[in-house]
C-alpha cells in the first residue's frame, strides 16, 4: 500500500476535523426476504481534492464483520472472476457521482451480517468507511401490507381513499398489490423500499359491511416459490333509511294491519301518521322490531278508515336522513285476509278457468249432436 493510501486510511480512522468529509451513508438496518434480493441505498463523501481519483478503475468493496473484514462483493470483478464473490450482486449506483447503491441477489438467512462499504481504485484512492454500516437480516416471511386510514365511518356519497402499502426489499421484484373486490379506480406507486396502491371510490349502501382485501404477491429468485400476504378492512357506510317494497297492508276482519320495513345505517326509527298526525290509537300496541342489523320492522293495526281519510303514512329516520311511504287503505280497496293485488290476480285466474271449462262443455255437446245427425 502506498504512503498516500495509508495516510488516507489513517485519516478516516481518526476523529479529527480534517476527516469529517470522509463518510458513507446507508440505512442502519435492512430486512430482506429469503430467496430474493436486497438493495442497499448508499452514498459517500470524500475529502476535498480527491474527486479526480474517482475514475473508471474504481470498484465498490463490501465487507462483513468490520471495515477490514472479508470481502463478500467486489464490483470490479467481471466474467468468471465474479465467482470469487461470496455474494452475487450489481453496483447500480455511479461511484463518480458518489452513489454506492448495490443490489445483492438470492439472499438467505446465512447472509445475516453487518456490511461495510469501501472504494478501491487503481490509484492512491483505496478507502474503507468504518463509521457507518448496515445490518442485513433475511427472513422467511415479511409483514402483511398496511391499509390506511384505519376503518372509519363514512356517509353514502362521500369519496373514499384507501392506501395499501407493502415493503419492497428487492426493487427488481417488487410485490404485486391487488384489491379484492375491485370497487373503484386504482393507482400504483413504487418507491425505493416500498410499493403502494391507492383505491378511490364513492361510498354507497351496497358497500356497507363489505370486506376489502389487499394482497401483496412476492415473486422470488432461483426457483423459490412465490409468497402472498393479505390484510383486510371492513367498510362501514352510513346511509339514510329506505322503506322496502315488502311494506304492505292487509285486512283482518274489521281491522287493517299495516307493516312497514325500513333499512338504514344507523338502524332507523319508525313512526306512523294518519291525516298528518301521529297515530297513538292502534288497536294492538304498535311494535318496532329489528330484522337483522340494519332493518327495522313496525306493525300497526287500525279500524277501517273513513272514506275521506284514505292514507296511512310510515315515517322512517336516522341521523343521516329520512324516508316516508303512503299506504292507501279503506274499506273499499282492502279485502279481508288478502292483499288487494293478490285478490285481483286470484279472481282473474278463477274467471279464466271457469270460461275454459264452459267452452270445453259446449264443444263436447256440439260434437255429440253432429254425430247423431250424420247417422
From TrEMBL:
Q: What GO MF terms are annotated?
A: carbohydrate binding; sialic acid binding
Q: Where is the Ig-like domain?
A: 143-234
Q: What InterPro entries does the annotation carry?
A: Ig-like_dom, Ig-like_dom_sf, Ig-like_fold, Ig_sub, SIGLEC
Where is this protein found? Membrane
- Please provide, in alphabetical order, the Gene Ontology terms of the cellular component aspect for this entry: plasma membrane
Q: Which PROSITE patterns match?
A: IG_LIKE (PS50835)
Q: Which residues cross the membrane?
A: 341-362
Q: Which SUPFAM superfamilies match?
A: Immunoglobulin
Q: What is its main location?
A: membrane
**SMART domains registered for this protein in UniProt:** IG
An example GO BP is: cell adhesion
* Keywords, alphabetical: Cell adhesion, Lectin, Membrane, Signal, Transmembrane, Transmembrane helix
Where does the record locate the signal sequence feature?
A: 1-19
Its family remark reads: Belongs to the immunoglobulin superfamily. SIGLEC (sialic acid binding Ig-like lectin) family.
Protein's name according to its UniProt entry: Ig-like domain-containing protein
Amino acid at each position: 500500500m502506498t504512503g498516500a493510501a495509508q495516510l488516507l486510511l489513517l485519516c478516516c480512522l481518526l476523529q479529527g476535523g480534517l476527516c469529517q468529509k470522509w463518510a458513507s451513508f446507508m440505512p442502519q438496518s435492512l430486512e430482506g426476504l429469503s430467496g430474493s434480493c436486497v438493495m442497499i441505498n448508499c452514498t459517500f463523501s470524500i475529502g476535498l481534492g480527491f474527486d479526480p481519483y474517482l475514475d473508471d478503475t474504481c470498484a465498490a468493496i463490501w465487507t462483513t464483520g468490520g471495515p477490514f473484514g472479508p470481502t463478500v462483493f467486489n464490483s470490479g470483478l467481471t466474467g468468471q472472476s465474479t465467482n470469487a464473490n461470496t455474494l452475487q450482486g450489481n453496483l447500480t449506483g455511479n461511484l463518480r457521482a458518489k452513489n454506492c447503491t448495490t443490489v445483492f441477489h438470492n439472499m438467505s438467512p446465512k447472509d445475516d451480517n453487518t456490511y461495510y462499504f469501501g472504494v478501491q481504485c487503481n490509484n492512491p484512492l483505496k478507502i474503507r468507511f468504518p463509521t457507518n454500516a448496515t445490518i442485513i437480516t433475511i427472513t422467511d416471511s415479511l409483514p402483511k401490507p398496511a391499509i390506511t386510514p384505519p376503518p372509519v365511518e363514512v356517509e353514502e356519497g362521500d369519496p373514499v381513499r384507501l392506501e395499501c402499502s407493502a415493503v419492497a426489499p428487492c426493487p427488481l421484484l417488487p410485490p404485486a398489490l391487488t384489491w379484492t373486490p375491485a370497487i373503484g379506480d386504482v393507482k400504483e406507486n413504487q418507491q425505493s423500499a416500498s410499493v403502494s396502491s391507492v383505491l378511490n371510490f364513492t361510498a354507497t349502501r351496497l358497500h356497507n359491511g363489505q370486506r376489502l382485501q389487499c394482497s401483496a404477491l412476492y415473486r422470488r429468485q432461483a426457483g423459490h416459490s412465490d409468497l402472498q400476504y393479505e390484510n383486510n378492512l371492513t367498510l362501514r357506510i352510513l346511509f339514510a333509511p329506505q322503506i322496502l317494497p315488502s311494506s304492505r297492508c292487509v285486512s283482518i276482519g274489521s281491522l287493517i294491519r299495516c307493516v312497514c320495513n325500513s333499512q338504514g345505517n344507523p338502524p332507523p326509527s319508525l313512526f306512523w301518521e294518519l291525516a298528518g298526525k301521529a297515530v297513538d290509537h292502534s288497536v294492538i300496541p304498535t311494535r318496532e322490531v329489528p330484522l337483522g342489523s340494519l332493518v327495522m320492522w313496525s306493525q300497526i293495526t287500525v279500524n277501517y278508515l273513513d272514506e275521506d281519510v284514505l292514507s296511512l303514512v310510515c315515517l322512517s329516520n336516522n341521523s343521516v336522513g329520512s324516508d316516508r311511504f303512503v299506504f292507501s287503505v279503506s274499506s273499499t280497496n282492502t279485502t279481508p285476509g288478502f292483499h288487494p293485488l293478490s285478490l285481483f290476480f286470484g279472481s282473474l285466474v278463477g274467471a279464466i278457468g271457469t270460461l275454459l271449462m264452459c267452452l270445453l262443455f259446449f264443444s263436447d255437446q256440439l260434437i255429440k249432436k253432429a254425430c247423431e245427425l250424420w247417422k
